[in-house]
């Protein structure tokens, strides 16, 4: 693990991630659907960026493109100055569905990425255990995935991602399916982990409060095809909670800006 | 358990009654005691042991080959679109053919040899294993593959560490089905031409009019089948089900979640 990065506000011009004129179109049976962009985003090293938008605005697609799991139809993503040509262990996605492997124990899941890098068994095990401890899941290292609760699965997936020591963590609505209490606990833990590890995080959500609570910066997106609508810098002290009045005030501002974009069905 | 014991005790009694009072002369319908004697004699003079050894060795070789070839074939057909469209459909077609039907061709190609029997055994297991592997690979939730690639798995690593384990439940049912096809075709092939093995012991019993031996060998075949089913496949299946959470405490199957 690297030492926490000091991040002076807006001091560095060099972006870790730059998304330039990226767009994506999907083919359905008989016509093309413009899913995303074109849009531009810059992310500083060490930043916690939230991308907020209605369902179906292409947030997940954008994340997959940055991860290198999908290719854009136009435009380019650069990571640390180099064009992204495929997936790589420096950019790890925490998928909405997590994708924890049911045939491995929790420990086995966390070791997965380390094993691929050829790290030897003892060292690998020790690294995995350290990360499980970080997410407070040590006692469940021998459990299989189906034996974990929703929040524990999130923690396991987070440990699996962090163990690979990526520079960029891409999180795709990871807490969407959790109950409010669990989500709040994970919000605090995530902020704590982020401050301790100095990772750059891009966190996608359709939940305004969540975005306001977690982000250094929130980018709002329009309905499909998703484009950037607004940017909000949030300089509140951490750790923040969703119900903090300052966070609620920011959320209100964002919601005002987003009026008409968020789905009514989501009750926001 | 007591219910089951009572049932088998009654079955034995009925058998004995049929042997004594039934319409067939006792030498055509041997009683439980004669069969037991025949079993003991068969093991004592080692003919049964040799038969079991010969049959199981054939099965082991043929099945091992089928497993390797079948999983490889299934992966190929499941992952490569054009192979699935062409070879995949052929596999499905061929599987409808009981594998013993390959015996005439096999005898012409390989002669009355070990290879002909092996061929029939392999045709029995290979297709079932390949088809189930294909099916398993095609039905892997895409998220596992995405997550694997995301963490740096490519090529052989993706195959060994993600695709195969993710398809394992399906591969295992193919293996189980393949085993039962292989076992049945082996017995059929051994019955059809002289070749040692358990099938031949059955035919020998018939030729010598020794029905006690025939029934004794049938029992040995049943026992071996049960042993493999329960001790090997039962264990493997339970292991996989427990890991994946396909069985909960009540023993009901439920869909696994990521």
Structure report:
The complex is a heterodimer of chains A (268) and B (258). In chain A, helix 3 packs across helix 4 and helix 6 (208-214) packs across helix 7 (245-258). In chain A, the strands form two sheets. A six-stranded mixed β-sheet of chain A has the order 6-7-8-3-9-10, sandwiched between helices. Chain A has 268 residues and is α/β, with parallel strands linked by helices. Helix content of chain A is 32%, strand content 24%. Chain B has 258 residues and is an all-alpha fold. Chain B is 80% helix and 0% strand. Chain B is built from ten helices and no strands. Chain B has helices at 2-21, 32-44, 47-79, 81-95, 103-110, 114-138, 142-150, 155-192, 197-207, 211-244. The longest helix of chain B has 38 residues, at 155-192. The radius of gyration of chain B is 22 Å and the shape is elongated. Chain B starts with a helix and ends in a 14-residue tail after the last helix. Mean pLDDT of chain B is 87; it is low at 249-258. At the A-B interface, helix 2 of A face helix 7, helix 8 and helix 10 of B.
Summarize the structure.
Chain A is of the alpha/beta class and 268 residues long. Chain A has helices spanning 59-67, 106-116, 121-134, 150-163, 180-197, 208-214, 245-258, and strands spanning 15-27, 32-44, 48-52, 74-79, 82-83, 91-94, 168-172, 200-205, 217-221, 228-233.
